[in-house]
Amino acid sequence: QVQLRESGPGLVKPSETLSLTCTVSGGSISDYYWVWVRQPAGRGLEWIGRVYPSGTTTYNPSLKSRVTMSADTSRNQISLRLGSVTAADTAVYYCARDDFFSGLAGYYYGMAVWGQGTTVTVSS
Amino acid sequence: DIQMTQSPSSLSASVGDRVTVTCRASQSISSYLNWYQQKPGKAPQLLIYAASSLQSGVPSRFSGSGSGTDFTLTISSLQPEDFATYYCQHSYSGPPMYTFGQGTKLQIK
What we know:
heterodimer, A: 4-stranded antiparallel β-sheet, 56% strand, B: 6-stranded mixed β-sheet, 10 strands
């Protein structure tokens, strides 16, 4: 079955760029949207954005100026870059596969496969 | 942007109880509504998509209903493993993001 694993530095300095990678095993990234979600400790989930391997991206407007997502089909990886980080960006970061379902009224998306998450702390 | 509001924020219940969680969208999202369960230290798990379709492998005691702006997640008979936090999320394609509700923490009474 498909497995996702997030990786990257656990500590990032303020004003620097957070870079994370999601490695997908057991399946190709080619036919799905891939999502990044984050969760500060003790708080709710925040949708950061999603990327399709063709390069199509959609970002949370509140983060759009600082976020870049990309996909590398040769490595079967998804990447997240978040610039100019502050302590408010400290969170567990998850990657997930946005699965596609057909229904009576159309087509629907839902995040059916998730990585275990990786904790990123922004601190000097 | 579409805002998603869940109620209640927390809920205490006993094993065997029937429990309902509500999610309201700030504008109509048809049936583009998902429900997730999250246990402490774990990634969320998709329970329901398209407002009422049960994700594969999810027990049938979970059900979803609603369309437009008002949605519910119902657990027909609570089991010990159901004590967790539940999130709704819209997947309506109009706006540029798929907002989550703030979560409902289901605790043991």
